[in-house]
Design brief:
- The chain has helices at residues 3-10, 16-36, 38-43, 51-72, 78-100, 124-142, 150-168, 173-189, 194-217, 225-238, 243-258, 282-315, 319-343, 361-396, 400-407, and strands at 112-115, 120-123.
- The chain has 408 residues and is mainly α.
- It has 2 domains: 25-73 and 241-379, no CATH class; 85-237.
- The protein starts with a helix and ends with a helix.
Length: 408
């Protein structure tokens, strides 16, 4: 190990296994992103050269790792105040995105905003999801030993939740559902009264039903979205041939042709037919090239990450620390398995990427921020344990004067 690398690693706190897993997934991601981007290079008028996509992916990962390193240095208790400050900001950003945002990659809804200074796009729902989960964890930790009613918790807790989900819902139904599911699980784990939670669930279902019925009754209010929802539901249930079903069929062909050991790196055929081969359906390309061995290897990496997240949760004594690890860690694993499930048609197409492996800046950055928060919690209780050990060892040391007096 070189002295420079050793010095850098000495500054890393937190769970070493998670650091190793994140680095492994990031390095591994270059292989499928590089090989799966050839169709994008041709579609965008290029000659099939995927080097630019590889460099872009490298840039996204580099920025993400900088975010992760900086965030893990922040004491995790500071995230309480940060979430309180950022909640109104992300609500404003979501509203702006809904009405003034842009579409990218064939999407038929506004999910991104353009950042003019650096000429890049940013998906606001990803940031809003992360901020909201930390905010909910803060509220649950604060009211852990208090008597909470639906009335007392509606304004400080559920109003921001409904506003964020409601602003995401028209443009991205699947993300809104996943955010709502994550909040529900977090509230259950955080000890929110179950009777009140069922009441909130009823309100959410009623609100979502009204929204969907309104969208179907007045499709002009949500252009293109109603047809998208219809096609996804019908596609998944009937198997009729549409664009999304076409992608699923090509993904299944890729998985079937991969076999046990795969066709070899760079030898994917279906990457030329899958429009989202480097993002939404990258797992199918991994199996086609590396077989079930590669597919199970990726799955195992996420399962180990889940295990380490569970260890940190159980060992952290601070209530907010426990809840914030669940809040930001659980969605990473859920997103990963939904992405893999879509590739094998266990779930309808959702547009969820494979964390740390799929191409895409916002997704990578938010995943890195989440892991940074997890590592901050681990680093926090590690520091506390070290301080306790130092204090205990100091108290056990005998006073030299006492020893001298006993000798005399």
């Amino acid at each position: 190990m070189t002295p420079g690398l050793k010095t850098y690693l000495s500054h890393l706190k937190g769970d070493k296994t998670i650091w190793a897993l994140v680095a492994l997934l990031a390095v591994f991601s270059f292989i499928p992103v590089y090989t799966a981007s050839s169709n994008l290079a041709y579609l965008n008028g290029g000659s099939g050269n995927t080097l630019s996509y590889l460099l872009k992916h490298f840039a996204h990962l580099s920025v993400g790792f900088v975010f992760m390193f900086l965030v893990h240095k922040i004491p995790f208790r500071y995230f309480k105040g940060l979430s309180l400050i950022l909640i109104p900001i992300v609500i404003i950003l979501l509203a702006y995105t809904l009405f003034q945002g842009t579409t990218i990659g064939g999407a038929n809804a506004s999910r991104w905003i353009q950042v003019p200074i650096v000429n890049m796009s940013f998906q606001t729902s990803s940031l809003a999801s992360l901020v909201l989960m930390v905010y909910v964890a803060k509220y649950l930790a604060k009211t852990k030993d208090e008597t909470v009613t639906l009335k007392s918790s509606f304004l400080p807790l559920w109003l921001p939740v409904f506003m964020v989900i409601g602003l995401i819902l028209p443009a991205n139904f699947s993300t809104a559902f996943l955010v709502g599911f994550g909040v529900f699980v977090l509230a259950f784990v955080g000890g929110y009264p179950k009777r009140n939670l069922l009441a909130v669930l009823g309100i959410a279902i009623a609100g979502a039903s009204i929204f969907v019925l309104t969208a179907f009754a007045f499709p002009s209010l949500f252009p293109n979205r109603v047809d998208t929802w219809k096609s996804r539901i019908e596609n998944f249930s009937s198997g009729e041939s549409t664009q999304e079903q076409y992608q699923v069929e090509k993904a299944k062909i890729a998985i079937a042709s991969g076999g046990i050991a795969g066709n070899g790196i760079g030898k994917s055929v279906q990457r030329n037919f899958l429009p989202q081969s480097s993002s939404d359906f990258i797992y199918a390309i991994i199996i086609e090239e590396m077989g079930l061995i590669g597919g199970f290897g990726v799955m195992l990496a996420y399962l180990i990450l889940l295990y380490r997240i569970a260890i940190i949760t159980t060992k952290t004594e601070d209530v907010f620390g426990k809840l914030v690890v669940v809040a930001v860690g659980f969605p990473i694993i859920l997103q990963a398995f939904i992405n893999m499930g879509v590739a094998v048609e266990l779930f309808p197409v959702t547009g969820q990427t494979l964390p740390l492996i799929s191409s895409g800046g916002t997704s990578i950055w938010m995943t890195c921020l989440a892991i940074g928060i997890i590592q901050s919690v681990k680093a926090g209780w590690q520091t506390e344990k070290e301080e306790e050990q130092i204090t205990a060892s100091d108290s056990e040391m005998e006073n030299p004067l006492d020893v001298l007096s006993e000798t005399i």
